[in-house]
Amino acid sequence: MENAVTKREKISYGLYFMGQNVFYGLIGYMTTYFTDIGITAALVAIVALITKVWDAINDPIFGMIMDKVNFKKGKFLPWLQISVIAIPVATILLFTIPTGIPMMAKIIWATLAYMLWDTAYTLCDVPIFGIVTTMTTDQKERISLNSIGRMFVIFSGIVTGIVLPLVRQRLGGWATTVIVLSLLSVVMMIPICLFAKERVIEKERALDEGAEDSYTLRDMAECLRKNKYLLIFFAAPLISSLLNVGANWGLYVARYCLGGEEAASYVSMTVIIPTLIGAVMAVELCKKYDKFKVFYISYVFALLLGIVRFMAGYENMTVYVTLNALGGIPLGIAVILQYQFTPDCYEYGQYKTGLKMRGVTFAAQTFFTKLNGAIATAVSVFALTLIGFREGEGVVQAAGFADKLWTFSCLGSIIGGICTLLMLRLYKLNDHDVQLMAKCNNGEISREEAESQMINQY
Question: Are 324 and 268 in contact, with CB atoms under 8 Å apart?
Fold first, then answer.
């Protein structure tokens, strides 16, 4: 098959995702790290918000640059090669702030390092998702690549969710742990730089098509404006991020509710197998049912489990672990499917506008992903100040702190989840219609033929 992707490419694609998501997982501990070195929760929130101002600028800029710049060696592959150096350097800088410097110096270091990390992550996130559309035009191959990539994301969760809490103190603290994990992650990210082949770009250049560098800024803005399903799908979780104050409280819950930091590792261990089961279920279910329906139903199931977990509390460790393990099933489904919809939105955007805005489309995904993370960080640290959190590793918290931590964490997640589900009801793309759009975009069928066979009108 002309568009066939080799097994070596698929494994390399998955390995890159594993390495990349170890770096992303480390950022989930950023709040804990900052408060451990004495930065107050309120100041951590300010650092996150300042960084998002830069983020609002750099994601669109790099998306446009990637659409305009055409390297001789490919569309996205050269950016991945740059990211292999950029992301580990930025991550290590972020987690090696000297503890003895003045508070203002810590804030400046943290802000600049986080901004550098944010930029470096854009350089790896946009290309690794976008390269799926340049490696093959076959929808089944794209789904296969994305599924493999997301499966390896689950393995990265073992590293950051289980291994890190167990070894951090044994390795001597945050700096040493981050350096070791960064080096291991880089090794996993290198193979795709050697083996990936951008077949679609090669074909387009041979036919003198896909001249994306001729598009204007107005074209790019218009492409995003008309891609309503891209905006709906990635804007919906913003509501959840605003309300889910406990999104980054994993280590705090372990320390103050479950008896110690290492409890986070033990709880994560019980989630791994159910998550893998959920991932396999996602792949199999999507062979029979539309992937958005599978995704939506799994989200409902996760929400119901969240309600039961809140009512059960954290005192009974057996019940707590059991409910968290069950939550691994919808988590595994979400991990596999969450980013399967961006290629669909790209096909929809091209179908509506005629513009091949790969870089801008996947930059929008990266922007919303990082914005969700930043909002969750800012909201969670502000919430910590509201419930009386005291900064510093090993500091004893006030009486009743654990109950407040638990209540805020659970209720925010439940309310945010309900709001997200309501907004996702507006998403109307389905696998059948997207396949027709892709065929139309590739010139295999006419627009009239596509529209006559579609389930929904667009």
Answer: no
